[in-house]
Specification:
Mean pLDDT: 91
Shape: elongated
Number of helices: 17
Largest sheet: 5 strands, parallel
Radius of gyration: 26 Å
Helix content: 40-55%
Strand content: 5-15%
Structural class: alpha/beta
Number of strands: 5
Order of helices and strands: HHHEHHEHHEHHHHHEHEHHHH
């Protein structure tokens, strides 16, 4: 029997510090720039302060992109513009610096970590640091079979939590989470449709490399068939991931939940990360308080998932490429919010009023304290004198 109990995350995950957020809001009221004039940057700065439990907020100095990689055999049905089993090509291009995420990461000085969970290739063809968490070679065809066995699902979930611990322990202060997959958006659509109670057509998108109408119909049919297999296991989130998710999606869900346990903020990139976050919300309702939605990719399943979690995307640029690109585009916005919240000066008159208010509170506290009198010192009160007479 598995020793993994997802219900434990409900108790382990706390919300960001509400008291610190109120302190951050109060400090914002005293800044030289009028409240509200910075738009969502104000809210972002206060969210970061609560997540860090620090006022003023600390700058984001050690962000990292983490990409979970895997192939999905559902791609054999022609639901993706990429050939089934070709996710390894994306991984190699990222490692060699030729993908959009690689270019942006270089420009921003952000390291990129790739974690192979189920690539359909010889593990010897990739660096050891990439493949050491691999669970299997390609996740199962979810319209007719489970994506993973129960043992593989547990191993993938634990791998995701281990990666989150490694990042937190290494000093990473914010993660951009994305995927490198072929067929992953189909699995994500199934998860979102199952958890939101919608039909396949409502969540079926065109994917990162847009598919034509015929491929869209095949994808819609695949999601419909997989949904029939997903609905009976909705009460068990790990079994749901094993049935219609995949090794990469299961690991991402584990990563998100453990990151929330470790109080490590995460920026969600696209539809796959959003689907995993929705599963994570079902496991622990406080977990989404630690996540930001980077952008609106135009995928209907992503919009559905973010709406269910009440997460509003930071950007709407129509970026569909995936692989953490949209998350990296949003990162400078988050860093700007932190810098503004920390470095903008306070208005002198507002700072003085705040100091006077604090002094008044201290004075009131002092008045409420009883003054020590002759009969109140230790050993000199009436009770002690009576005891001595006896």
């Amino acid at each position: 029997m598995s020793s993994l109990n997802l219900d434990d995350f409900t108790d382990l995950i706390e919300r960001p510090d509400g008291g610190v957020r109120r302190d951050a809001e109060a400090r914002r009221e005293r800044l030289a720039v009028p409240p509200g004039s910075l738009g969502r940057l104000d809210d972002l700065g206060e969210w970061l302060a609560a997540a860090q439990a620090a006022v003023p907020v600390r700058p984001i100095e050690r962000p990292r992109v983490v990409l979970f990689a895997g192939d999905h055999k559902i791609a054999e049905l022609g639901v993706s513009a990429r050939a089934a089993g070709s996710a390894v090509e994306l991984v190699r291009e990222v490692l060699e610096g030729g993908r959009p995420v690689s270019v942006l990461a270089r420009r921003l000085g952000v390291p990129v970590r790739v974690v192979d969970m189920a690539l359909d290739c010889d593990p010897a063809s990739l660096p050891e640091g990439v493949v050491r968490h691999r669970v299997r070679r390609g996740s199962g065809r979810i319209d007719i079979e489970d994506a993973l066995s129960p043992e593989e699902a547990e191993a993938a979930f634990r791998a995701g939590t281990a990666v989150a611990d490694e990042e937190a322990d290494s000093g990473t202060d914010l993660v951009v989470l994305g995927d490198l997959s072929v067929g992953g958006t189909t699995a994500a659509g199934v998860l979102v449709a199952a958890l939101c109670g919608t039909d396949a057509s409502v969540v079926t998108g065109r994917g990162g490399l847009a598919i034509d109408d015929l491929a869209w119909m095949r994808k819609c049919a695949a999601i419909r068939d997989a949904l029939r297999r997903a609905r009976p296991v909705l009460g068990d989130q790990l079994q749901l991931l094993a049935t219609v998710g995949g090794a990469d999606l299961t690991a991402m869900t584990g990563f998100l939940l453990q990151a929330a346990v470790r109080k490590l903020p995460v920026v969600l990139d696209g539809v796959v990360a959003s689907a995993c976050a929705l599963v994570g919300q079902r496991v622990a309702f406080r977990a989404p308080d630690w996540w930001l939605a980077a952008h609106d990719s135009g995928e209907p399943a992503q919009a559905k998932a973010l709406d269910r979690m009440a997460l509003e995307p930071l950007l709407t640029h129509g970026v569909t490429v995936g692989e953490g690109t949209g998350g990296l585009l949003a990162l400078p916005l988050v860093q700007a919010a932190a810098a503004l919240a920390a470095e903008l000066p306070e208005r002198p008159e507002r700072a003085e009023r705040a100091e006077r208010a604090e002094d008044a509170e201290d004075a009131e506290d002092a008045e409420r304290q009883p003054e020590a009198g002759p009969g109140t010192e230790p050993g000199t009160g009436p009770e002690q004198e009576a005891a001595q007479e006896r």
